[in-house]
Every structure is written in structure tokens, then in C-alpha cells.
TrEMBL record, chains A, B:
Name of protein: LLM class flavin-dependent oxidoreductase
Source taxonomy: Bacteria, Pseudomonadati, Pseudomonadota, Alphaproteobacteria, Acetobacterales
Species name: Teichococcus oryzae
Sorted UniProt keywords: Flavoprotein, FMN, Monooxygenase, Oxidoreductase
Gene3D superfamilies in the record: Luciferase-like domain
Sample GO molecular function, one term: monooxygenase activity
NCBIfam families cross-referenced by the UniProt entry: FMN_nitrolo
Length: 452, 452
């Protein structure tokens, strides 16, 4: 690679309102009404764009994920904007930053997802991305007339078919189908419109999608699965992987495994960007960062920590165990297998008690945490980025706006000084920011109007 | 009513891109790329707000409604933005105007609809409305794994339950549930959060909705049904009725019938605003208006007219009939019964041939058309408004931007001079514009956390 264009880090902003620390909304650096304030979201979006981030990233649930009310009422997590509506509004107050929303393949339909993300891509001028999740929360099932969520393997088979149908719908119109010929009165060339006629195991969808092909061809496909099925789906379909790794060796193993799987599927190693979550607590000095962290931890109520730990381990009941004792053996469950392993490994590696574990988890939700000066945080990011563990990071500030402002004012300039991160956008679309190719139009189904 | 505040007309803008005339996109007064241009939509939204309109209104289909490709390729109708994404973007470039989107009760889920419209209401500061449709198009069924659309009666039973569940979800949080007490660490009062636990004929939905109660309590409920089942559902649940009436006596009958039904359901006659569609072709003189109309009609290809007529009559095949002969008897179908009657009545009343009928229909799609000077159009609107036929109108300009600009520059000032329409907004929310009460919070289901 020429010295003039060294490999560049990609940065996403995980836009969990009030910030990633679950008690962070109580901190003076947070804006407690952010979950229902479009002004607050717009301010953060503009701040991320000014720092030249690649994208905003919105997690989502079609439910209140936890229903342990004494704990949940102490968090802002019961209150989240529908992501397409939010990102569509944010697209108007920004110009370049990518906009990635989560959409469930278990509780939605390909036609709805294709329309919503396709429209967001048009409205934003090619900045949309779809974070594909299979959803493993029973509370979500109960909001859609199901008794329980689908089994892990079924969810992933459905997801694979769902993604293929959605891509087929985006390709209904060829890129040059809209001729808009005022003279002849032909608006689109029906020879360049395809009827998908999909009939599969989970879906029967005729099409065509009632929308011109999105500016990016397809919105960028993002995934987070770390299980065997998740890795396989990601290697076959994803373009960005939102990974969860605590330690460098695990991250290196995951990174190498994904790149290997890509080659096995005939894809280029550069076709997928691996971006682990990163929870940074930054100060002008390390001591200041540690003080900030301690301040945040003092705000954490034990109910919240224990409830979150139980939730993240698939509902494991910790009440029979001594909270200052070691973590018991966790049974294999049907939810987030990769996350479960990360949590158990963390407790083992650092010999944490249940209390110490939930204090760590409540902060970063299992993601990689760095507390330190800007140089220390940049060092860690550079180590992972150059050490075969990451193509970039999904940054999870502890609080909005303060925790994020500190990152943009201190860490981003440090990364730029080191030549690791852009100082200006060079492209206009999310694909261009990420260095991903625009997918060519694929001719699926049959043409709407064959030549006469 | 005091003279200082005479009854005011309500105006909605039916935002069908490129305009309501099906060949209007070919006209120099239209912007042919509007279907995929957020800038063009934003310009129209600002124009409507500057004219003090109550609301924008977006029709919708989860399909290309017609698949008669030789005709459809001559229209812009195969290309429409997903309405929540579009309105959410438009909410950021406007401040006061209401934002009404169509959402299907047949091909969506109450939880998705409640989240999307609730979020739009938050983002827009209380300007959202939901146009409830039951969807009667087989092309839509085929995009969602169904062989055919549900029968008329089933659709309406499902719709009634759907609306109740959605309202229940919006009432998950009480208005004052979010206490955000930084000191105690309580974000919301779980004694003011309700779990819906709905179990009905069509839906099982536990709740709660993961969203604070919308600013308007509930987004404004809009409906268009003119059939017996449609009128009954509207009288029970709607707050705005988008009516389709060609002639004053029919409009008066419909208006009186709705107001009667309201009283029978224990609702106030003012609780619902009846707003028929109005297709205005305006000129500085009548002659200029007629010239504009003739210009538009010259752009209409016969394939398009006949195809649209067939579509609007539930797929009736006109090919065996002489296009210059009279309209045959139309069989009762399962789609849009009220619309069918309007079309048949129009042909009979004005003794139209099939060709003359489709020329009329292609223009206004069965809605009330007025071609004339500003004074003539205002006269007709005043006649209906004061004659017990309308509380306002859903305005359907033939083209965007020109056809709408002519309406705002010529007709709106005339209505304002006559004291029939506001010159400034007096309220901030769509409910305030329309004079609709904010629904009180209803305690459905059970409380999340009972008092200790």
C-alpha cells in the first residue's frame, strides 16, 4: 500500500441514547431527556460528522428487553425511538455520515425492510446500512403473537433467506430503468424491471419492490453474530461485522476466522470490515479518566447490575449465589452464544466475583473497555488495528454528549495525527467511506415486460 | 359561535409525487424526478406550511398496485418512498404542519405501527397522524406470502382490533411516567407503566411499548372507508375522514350519516372532521384553467386511462366493450365498495362513455374535480363547507410544484379573505390545528410495578 494512503481505521458511533453506561443518564455529562429529544440526537449526529465518523449505528428491540421492573425503571432502555424514523430525520441535518439501523429478520417482513432501508438510502443520498439481527428475546416474541422466540438454527436459516429476498427486492429496478421520457410518455423501461417471484422455505414474495434501486445498489449489510451460525451468515452476506471481543487474542482469532471464511465463500478479505465495540472512558490524563469511571460506577444501583447480568446470560438466576463469590458455571442457552462466552471468559481471566463482573458488564455490556488518556486509548486502538484484530471500531461513549465530546476532542485528533483516521471525507456514500464496492444489479426472477 | 372565530376550513395536501393527474409528470409544471427526490418533497412541504395547511397526507401501498406493465410504465406510481421515513425527514424541514402517513392493518403489526407513528409524533413535536387502511390489493397480498387479500368483513374486524391494540400500546406509559430523578436514580415510575396483555381474535400482544406516550397522546387517526363497515369503523375510531364524493348531495348524505353515527357511538359531532378529496385545476381565469386541464388531458395515453379504470373497479375487464359506448353494469367486488359506487354514479349522472369516464377518472381518481378561477374554486369549497358536506378538503393538485403553487397563490388567499381559512397557525400540534381533543390516558392491562 503506498505511503500516501495508509490503511485507514473505520469508526462507527453506537448511538445508545444517554450513553452506553447504563447509569450514565444520572451523570452531569449526560442529557437525561435524550431518548425523546430529536434535538439531542441531531446534536450528536452533527458532532460525529464533524469528527468524520463513518457512521451512526442504532441498536434496536421491538420490546422492552428486560421486564425486571425494579431494575429497568432505573434505566433509559425502555424508551427508544423507532430507528428508521430517527435516522431519516438525522439524514436531513447531516450530509456525509453513514446511517445504520437495526432491523429484525424474525419479526419483520422482507418487503417492509427493503422499502424502509431503500427509502433511507434514497433520502440520505446513499448513506444507509442495515444491521441484520435475528432477535433472541422472548419479550419481543410476546409482542408479535408468538409464545417464545424461534430456535437459534431456525432464526439463522430464516435470516439467510430473508437477506436474499431483500437483496432481490432492491434489484427490482435496474440502475438505469427510470428513463422519465416526457416526449414518449415512458417513465420507466419495463424491460429493466424484474418480478422476483421468490418462493422459499420461509417466504413467498412476488415483488417488484415499488422503489427505484437504492443509490448504493444495496444499503450496507451489517451483522453482529459471533456464534458458528452467525459467523457463517456474516461471512456469506455481511459487509461490516460489529464484533464483541474483550481481549486482543480473542479479537485476533475472530478476525482471522472471518477473513478465512470469506475466502472460502469466494469473497475478498477486504469485502468485510470487522469493527469490534469499544467503550472508551477518556480523560486529559489517566487519573482524570479513572476518576470519571469511578464517578459513573458510583451511580450504578446493584439492582441494575444484577438484572443486566442475568439478562445478558439468557435469564440465569443469580439469587442463590453469593454476589461476592465466583461466577457459577453458565448453562448453554439459545441466546447470544458468543456473548455468553465473552462474559464467562472475562470472569475467568480476571478472576472476578459476581459483583465485580456485573460492575464491568453494566459499563460496557461485554465490550472492550479502555480507561485512559487520549494517547493510551489511541495506543490500544492502534494495537488492535495493526495487530490483525480490527478494521475499525464501533465507539460506545459512556455518556452523551460529554463522554462522546471528550472522544472527538481528544482521541480523534490523536488518531488523525498518527495518520490512522481521515481528516476529511473523500467519498459521499457509506460504501465509499468504508471502501466497499457497489453491488452490481443481479437479474433475479423474470423481467416485467419482455421485448415485443 | 362568536363572529371573531368563525368556523375554519381544514386543508390537507395529498402528497402524491409529481401530482394527482396520472400523466402530470409529463407536464412542464411537474418535476419528473420528484418520486426519488427528498429536495423536491421538502420544497412542497415548506410551500404547504407557508400556506398554513393543516397537514400533509401520504397514501401508500406495499406493492406496485397495478401490474399492467404497458400502462404502468407510463406512470410514476411504481416508485414511492416508504411514508414514515419520508415524513420523518420532512418533519425536520418544517415546524408546524401535520404529517399523516398511511399504514396498513392487514400487512403490518400493531407493535410496529405504534412504534413508528409514536416516534414520528415525538420527532415532530406532536404532528403525526395515521391513515388507517385495510388494503384491498392482491398485489400486496402476494408480497407477504398470502394467496389473496382477506375478505372485506375480515379485514375490517382485524382493523378494529388492530386500532384498539395500537391505542393501548401508545398508553403504555402515562403522560407523567418519566420522572428522570437523577438523585434517586429512578428514570420512570414503573407504577405508571402498564403492560397491555392483549389477547384477541387476531392479535396477542403483551407490551409495553418501548416508547414514552406520544406528545399528542395518540397520533391523529384518519380513515377513508366509505362502505358500511368502513363508515362504522370510522364513526367508532376515526378523527379525520378522507371522503370521496363527486357531487354535493352525495357528500351531504355522507357527512350527515357520519355525524349521526358519531352520536350513536356516544361521540361528539365535532370529534370527526370530514375532508373530501378535491382536485383543483386553477387559473387566473376560467379559460386559463380549462386550457391547463386540456393540456394535461392531451398527455394521457389511452393504455393508462383504461388500465386505471380497470384497477379502480376491482380488475373489471373492459376489453369486450366499445370504449365509446356506455359503462356496463359493474359487478359487486370485494374492493373499495364506496369507490365503485362513486364511479358508477358519475358515469350515469353525466352519461359518460367508457372513454369519457376514464379521462375523468385518470384525472381525479374518482374525486371531486373543479376547473376554474380562484374565485370559482373558492365558491365551490365554500358551498360544500357551509352546506353540510365538508369540514375541509384534502387538496389534490394535478402537478407538483406548479399545480400546487397556483392553488397556494390564488385560492388560499381567496379563502383567507373570506375568513374561511387561517392566516397564521394558532396551535403547535396537528390536534390543535384540527381542533381535536388530546385523548386522556386509558388504563388498560395491568400496572408494571404495583405499589409495594
Amino acid at each position: 500500500m503506498p505511503a500516501s494512503s495508509p490503511r485507514q481505521m473505520r469508526l462507527g458511533l453506537f448511538l445508545l441514547s444517554t450513553g452506553h453506561h447504563i447509569a450514565g443518564w444520572r451523570h452531569p455529562g449526560a442529557q437525561a431527556d435524550m431518548p425523546t429529544s430529536i434535538r439531542a440526537f441531531a446534536e450528536i449526529a452533527r458532532m460525529a460528522e464533524a469528527a468524520r465518523f463513518d457512521m451512526l449505528f442504532l441498536a434496536d428491540n421491538n420490546c422492552v428487553p428486560q421486564t425486571d421492573w425494579p431494575a429497568v425503571r432505573r434505566t433509559t432502555r425502555a424508551n427508544i425511538f423507532e430507528p428508521i424514523a430517527l435516522l431519516s430525520a438525522l439524514s436531513v441535518v447531516t450530509e456525509r455520515i453513514g446511517l445504520v439501523a437495526t432491523g429484525s429478520t424474525t419479526y419483520s417482513e422482507p418487503y417492509h425492510i427493503a422499502r424502509a432501508f431503500g427509502t433511507l438510502d434514497h433520502i440520505s443520498g446513499g448513506r444507509a446500512g442495515w444491521n441484520i439481527v435475528t432477535t433472541s428475546n422472548s419479550n419481543e416474541a410476546w409482542n408479535f403473537g408468538r409464545d417464545s422466540h424461534m430456535a437459534h438454527a431456525d432464526r439463522y436459516r430464516r435470516a439467510a433467506e430473508f437477506v436474499e429476498v431483500t437483496k432481490g427486492l432492491w434489484d427490482s429496478f435496474a440502475d438505469d430503468a427510470l428513463v422519465r421520457d416526457v416526449e414518449s410518455g415512458i417513465y420507466f423501461d419495463a424491460g429493466k424491471l424484474r418480478v422476483l417471484d421468490h418462493q422459499g422455505e420461509h417466504f413467498t414474495v412476488r415483488g417488484p419492490l415499488n422503489l427505484a434501486r437504492p443509490p448504493q445498489g444495496h444499503p450496507v449489510l451489517v451483522q453482529a453474530g459471533g456464534s458458528e451460525a452467525g459467523r457463517d451468515l456474516a461471512a456469506r452476506t455481511a459487509e461490516v461485522i460489529f464484533a464483541v471481543n474483550q481481549a486482543l487474542p480473542d479479537a485476533q482469532e475472530f478476525y482471522a476466522d472471518i477473513k478465512r471464511r470469506l475466502l472460502a465463500h469466494g469473497r475478498d478479505a477486504e469485502a468485510v470490515k470487522v469493527m469490534p465495540g469499544l467503550f472508551p472512558v477518556v480523560g486529559r490524563t489517566r487519573a482524570e479518566a479513572e476518576d470519571r469511571m469511578a464517578e459513573l460506577q458510583r451511580l450504578l444501583h446493584p439492582d441494575v447490575g444484577l438484572s443486566l447480568l442475568s439478562f445478558l446470560t439468557g435469564g440465569f438466576d443469580f439469587s442463590p449465589y453469593d454476589v461476592d463469590g465466583p461466577l457459577p458455571e453458565l448453562p448453554d442457552t439459545d441466546v447470544g452464544k458468543a456473548r455468553l462466552k465473552v462474559i464467562a471468559d472475562l470472569a475467568k481471566r480476571e478472576n472476578l466475583s459476581i459483583r465485580q463482573l456485573y460492575e464491568r458488564i453494566a459499563v460496557s455490556r461485554g465490550h472492550h473497555m479502555v480507561v485512559g488518556s487520549a494517547a493510551e486509548i489511541a495506543d490500544r486502538m492502534q494495537e488492535w488495528f495493526e495487530g490483525g484484530a480490527a478494521d475499525g471500531f464501533n465507539v460506545m461513549p459512556p455518556t452523551f454528549p460529554e463522554g462522546f465530546r471528550a472522544f472527538t476532542e481528544l482521541v480523534v485528533p490523536e488518531l488523525q495525527r498518527r495518520g490512522l483516521f481521515r481528516t476529511e471525507y473523500s467519498g459521499a456514500t457509506l460504501r465509499e467511506h468504508l471502501g466497499l464496492a457497489r453491488p452490481p444489479h443481479a437479474a433475479r426472477g423474470h423481467v416485467a415486460l419482455p421485448p415485443a
